[in-house]
Amino acid sequence: MTILILYVVIFAAAFFLVRFGVRKFRQMQDFTSLKTVTFGDESAVKPDRWASVISIVAIFLLWGAFTGSQWVPIHAPGPFVGDTQFTYTLEAPDGRRDDATVYARVFKVGADAEEPEIQPGDGFAKNDAIKVGAWRSELLLMDKNDEVKRKEGAKVVAIDGQPVAPGETVRVVDGSVAVTAKGSLNFSPAKGMQMEPIWLPAPEAVVARVGEIASEGYQNFTLWEHLFWSLFRVIVGFVIGAAVGIPLGYAMGLSNWFRGWFDPIVEFMRPVPPLALIPLVIIWAGIGESGKIILLFLAALWIMTISARAGVSGVAISKVHAAYSLGASKWQLMRHVIVPNSLPEIFTGARVAMGVCWGTVVAAELVAAEKGVGMMVMVAARFQNTDIVIMGIILIGIIGYAIDILTRKAEAWLVPWKGRI
Amino acid sequence: MSTLSIENISMRFDLPNGSHVQALKDVSLTLNTGELMSVLGPSGCGKTTLLNILAGFLAPTEGRIMLNDHLVTGPDAERGMVFQQGALFEWMSVRDNVSFGPRMAGKREKQWGETVDHLLDVVGLQGFKDKAVYELSGGMQQRVALARCLANDPDVILMDEPLGALDALTREKMQGLVLKLWKETGKTIILITHSVEEALLLGERLLVMAPRPGRIHKEYSLPFADDGVGRDLREVKKNPEFGEKREEILSMIWDMEEEIMGRSEEASA
């Protein structure tokens, strides 16, 4: 909740800063800047690059600030670490009361820590010493060194002077103390607002993991091998899917019989999410490479078939007529008119198919695989290696984005007439 | 010497709802080499159907088309088409579009290069030959379409409202160009148009068609096309005879439209 509010504040602050600060210094005067009606004019809305940069920086800043990153100068309050103390008041059955102090040493989990050395103190309640890991809590049987025990009727009636009863919790200086139903004390040091590394590791931990896994590997394969295998499956599956799907789509676009024969199959298979095929593919082909490639082939096949079919249907009849009356044969019509005319549609299909394949391969690897980036993430999650999980997710995102950009570049290069007809 | 003869063409097809459409009924005419005929008529009179039959895209239910003493059965390079919207190939440069026909016929650049460059000169696009066609304006695209058709050296050129999508000024320039190309190449041309003025200006012969069923209503022989060659077409339009003919044909088509409207009102009543 705090993070969300902070995020909104950063959003608003950056907006006003850029609008009234930066914009003042470099006024552009292009055509769009002269438009007075921009609200509702989609063409006047362009992504503000300042916003994009600040957005990314803000995410990393928040991430760093709430994980205690070394890279970020400001931090959210972290968990309490160090020595603290609180007192409890023990009441004996005869009504006598005595105070004792609990000395607690809160240490970073993973670091060595000793319980603080203390004097037992006066009275029938004796001082105690405990050590607690940050973000953890510690049950304290405070009466084990006291002269009157709980089973003899002693009970804690107040902590730091605040009266308590079993089941209640009171705040103390650096945390809170709960009295359990049985009357013992449970000390939880203040957690602060940072995330524990097991939930969300700091950015540097993730980066360190990248280096470590890139050189040493994880689950018998290096990071590059995991990524390579995932990409390899996508590319092989997509290429086979396109190699079968495009001719099939052409046939469906050019022949009644093919259209009639494959229409029910394509229309039925198209809405089946490829993920739903994973169990069947595993039964048929196992969890090895062939299973993955069959799955990705199926994921790409229908998309490519439909886009090739749409590409053929999209040929303006006047172009076909023109080609025939210029003396083209059927084969020449195919090669010089229908295929080039369908390329924009096929590229759109290819972009969608590559995206779907990438998503499917990760999901398939999550289910069962020996290698691959999805498998890496899944195994890491089982061992609670959150840093590897986050690294994997970021890499999956980057690669998916890169695939999309590459297909777009290829499209702009190969079909420059797209959208200009 | 007759070249193109249309012999008793009828076209009738069934609709899914059981009724049928008589698109053309008993259309006959003969075109001599080098004649330019414009075809006018209200919408639904079958003029585009007639053109598609001539091109070989549709088969008539009755009658036949003969060109140079052989039967027309399908599309062929001997009958070139120019469409309303260029129908150019966006993936080819201007020059590749124009040379499409010869290239499909398997000719080498040696054989067609000169002709194609000459045609690009004639239509004024020599400077644009390596441009992509989608970079050209509508008028320029239509000039590419004309050049592409001529590069194939067809016997007959069929034009389906070739200037219909152009703005008035470009259209007037293009009308001059069509006349010039007609005279220079001596091609037989059939030109369908919606514009009475264009039909009068360009048509050596002018065919007015009537709808339901599509048939030939009246034919004119006109002097304006010959007058217009190499001249400012606005001068031709000032000819009082031109004005008379325009009024006559306009009211003829107007009457037909009225009749259609009346009939459909009766049908709906």
TrEMBL record, chain A:
Instruction: Give the matching SUPFAM superfamilies.
Output: MetI-like
Keywords, A to Z, come to: Cell membrane, Membrane, Transmembrane, Transmembrane helix, Transport
GO terms in the biological process aspect are:
alkanesulfonate transmembrane transport; cellular response to sulfur starvation
| Residue ranges of every copy of the ABC transmembrane type-1 domain listed in the record | 227-407
Membrane topology, as annotated, equals:
Multi-pass membrane protein
Q: Name one Pfam family in it.
A: BPD_transp_1
Q: Where are the transmembrane segments?
A: 6-22, 227-248, 268-287, 294-317, 346-367, 388-407
Spell out the subcellular localization from the entry. Cell membrane
* Gene3D superfamilies on file: MetI-like
Tell me which GO cellular component terms the UniProt record holds. plasma membrane
What the protein does comes down to:
Probably part of an ABC transporter complex. Probably responsible for the translocation of the substrate across the membrane.
PANTHER family for this protein: ALKANE SULFONATE ABC TRANSPORTER-RELATED, MEMBRANE SUBUNIT, TAURINE TRANSPORT SYSTEM PERMEASE PROTEIN TAUC
The similarity comment for this entry is:
Belongs to the binding-protein-dependent transport system permease family.
Q: What is this protein called?
A: ABC transporter permease subunit
State the species of origin: Roseovarius gahaiensis
Lineage, broadest ranks: Bacteria, Pseudomonadati, Pseudomonadota, Alphaproteobacteria, Rhodobacterales
From TrEMBL, chain B:
Record-linked Pfam families: ABC_tran
Q: Any idea which UniProt keywords this protein has?
A: ATP-binding, Cell inner membrane, Cell membrane, Membrane, Nucleotide-binding, Translocase, Transport
InterPro entries this protein is in?
A: AAA+_ATPase (IPR003593), ABC_transporter-like_ATP-bd (IPR003439), ABC_transporter-like_CS (IPR017871), ABC_transporter_ATP-bind (IPR050166), P-loop_NTPase (IPR027417)
Its domain of life reads Bacteria
Ranges for domain ABC transporter come to 4-236
Gene3D superfamilies named in the record: P-loop containing nucleotide triphosphate hydrolases
GO function terms (MF aspect): ATP binding; ATP hydrolysis activity
PANTHER family in the cross-refs: TAURINE IMPORT ATP-BINDING PROTEIN TAUB, TAURINE IMPORT ATP-BINDING PROTEIN-RELATED
* Similarity comment: Belongs to the ABC transporter superfamily.
What's the name of the protein?
ABC transporter ATP-binding protein
